[in-house]
From TrEMBL:
Keyword Zinc-finger attributed: no
EC number: 1.2.1.27
Protein known as: methylmalonate-semialdehyde dehydrogenase (CoA acylating)
PANTHER family tied to this protein: MALONATE-SEMIALDEHYDE DEHYDROGENASE, METHYLMALONATE-SEMIALDEHYDE DEHYDROGENASE [ACYLATING], MITOCHONDRIAL
A GO-annotated cellular component: mitochondrion
GO molecular function, one term: methylmalonate-semialdehyde dehydrogenase (acylating, NAD) activity
GO biological process: L-valine catabolic process; thymine catabolic process
Keyword NAD applies: yes
InterPro entries: Ald_DH/histidinol_DH (IPR016161), Ald_DH_C (IPR016163), Ald_DH_CS_CYS (IPR016160), Ald_DH_N (IPR016162), Aldehyde_DH_dom (IPR015590), MeMal-semiAld_DH (IPR010061)
Keywords associated with the record: NAD, Oxidoreductase
Aldehyde dehydrogenase domain residues: 1-408
Family classification: Belongs to the aldehyde dehydrogenase family.
Superkingdom as given in the UniProt entry: Eukaryota
Length: 431
């Protein structure tokens, strides 16, 4: 792992260029994609201490008990298109340093980064057969779920696929950690720092063309903060839509023609239900890339909880705006939503922030932080409909996911002769 992180740093530009070419995100964002994965590789370098068990001598006379963590065997990962480097690096570095072999299925839409990372792992000295790449779609996913030798599966992607994998693989007795959809909310209080908050909303809503499971896609304006909408629209108009390889690009294209059509349909469904389209990016044309799958920043306001554009994860550069009269009303909006990946609040009040972090039903909470994804010595802790399983990605939970615990009780003492046989259940006094 020490060598692998060195090689990833060496080839950072090459990896980022591949991601931009295949996936479409800007080069700057592609560098971030690789770097966030690199952090997990660096965390895995400390696996010797992360796997430490527990030891208690003399739990009874002459008897010691200790626990160790052992690998599961063969594990697998099924990856989405939106982070071609980061998500694979969430998975296989932790798994293999825990002693497992790993089968990685990258997205069929952008598999190049996974292949490049596997080549670097081989160059770093990973033994043959430890990391394996397979390609395909539904049939390959089902084969992974059904394979008797695979003990655990990591998945990141949509709810439909995630719940299918969780159900099918769990029925076969496998461990599953399934990170799925999201509808992350940002609550804007009237006392928030206006300039910093608007910049945060733009970055978190439109970065990566909104194709992030932690995108801040829903804004809940509390009280007078709704008056900031016009300023938000004006700043969004200044963002540049272009091919990701172009140096001035703020937003690249979405992943496919089908994705663009779905995003446009969801935006239109909101308009038809009474939402107001303050900024429409559906007909943006990029000179030189006229056939690209581009959507510009789009802002809907007057959205209500019964609209499809709110209930569905849009996964595009669309901000859905709602109104609340108080913090309590805003919290009710967030907590009634089925998803629980993340939520943020923008405020200068410590009391408001404390109430929010205590009462909000989301796994990852931001206070004046729009995308509160933790560093890898914590874990990615989405909940509710955003996660299926018991153990989250990376951090201590990730180590526990890829290992099984074994407890050893040992006795080293001479027993007196003629002590006889006791069939009673042993206790600490009678061991």
């Amino acid at each position: 792992m020490f060598k692998l992180q060195e090689l990833i740093r060496r080839d950072m530009d090459k990896l980022a260029k591949n991601i931009t070419t295949e996936q479409g995100k800007t080069l700057k964002d592609a560098h971030g994609d690789v770097f966030r994965g690199l952090e997990v590789v660096e965390h895995s370098c400390g696996m010797a201490t992360l796997q430490m068990g527990e030891y208690v001598p003399n739990v009874a006379s002459g008897i010691d008990t200790y626990s160790v963590r052992e690998p599961l065997g063969v594990c697998a990962g099924i990856c989405p298109f939106n982070f071609p480097a980061m998500i694979p690096l969430w998975m296989f570095p932790v798994a293999v340093t825990c002693g497992n072999t790993f089968v990685l299925k990258p997205s069929e839409k952008d598999p190049g980064a996974s292949i490049m990372l596997a080549e670097l792992a081989i160059e770093a000295g990973l033994p043959p057969g430890v990391l394996n790449i397979v390609h395909g779609t539904n049939d390959i996913v089902n084969a992974i779920c059904d394979d008797d030798d695979i003990r655990a599966i990591s998945f990141v992607g949509s709810n439909t696929a995630g719940m299918h994998i969780y159900g099918r693989a769990s029925a076969k007795g496998k461990r599953v950690q399934s990170n799925m959809g999201a509808k992350n909310h940002g609550i804007v209080m009237p006392d928030a720092n206006k300039d910093a908050t608007l910049n945060a909303l733009l970055a978190a809503g439109f970065g990566a063309a909104g194709q992030r499971c932690m995108a801040l896609s829903t804004i809940v304006f509390v009280g007078d903060s709704e008056s900031w909408l016009n300023d938000l629209v004006e700043r969004a108009k200044g963002l540049k839509v272009n091919a990701g390889i172009e140096p001035n690009a703020d937003l690249g294209p979405v992943i496919s023609k089908q994705a663009k059509e779905r995003i446009c349909r969801l935006v239109q469904s909101g308009v038809e239900r009474g939402a107001k389209l303050l900024l429409d990016g559906r007909n943006v044309v990029v000179p030189g890339y006229e056939q690209g799958n581009f959507i510009g920043p789009t802002i809907l306001t007057g959205v209500t909880a019964d609209m499809e554009c709110y209930k569905e994860e849009i996964f595009g550069p669309v901000l859905v705006c709602m109104k609340a009269d108080s913090l309590e009303d805003a919290l009710n909006i967030v907590n009634r939503n089925k998803y629980g990946n993340g939520a943020s609040i923008f405020t200068t009040s410590g009391a408001v922030a404390r109430k929010f972090q205590t009462e909000v039903e989301a796994g990852q909470v931001g206070i004046n932080v729009p995308i509160p994804v933790p560093l890898p010595f914590f874990s990615f802790t989405g909940n509710k409909a955003s996660f299926a399983g018991d153990l989250n990605f990376y951090g201590k939970a990730g180590v526990n996911f890829f290992t099984q615990i074994k407890t050893v009780t040992q006795q080293w003492k001479d027993l007196p002769s003629g002590s006889g046989v006791s069939l009673a259940m042993p206790t600490s006094q009678k061991l």
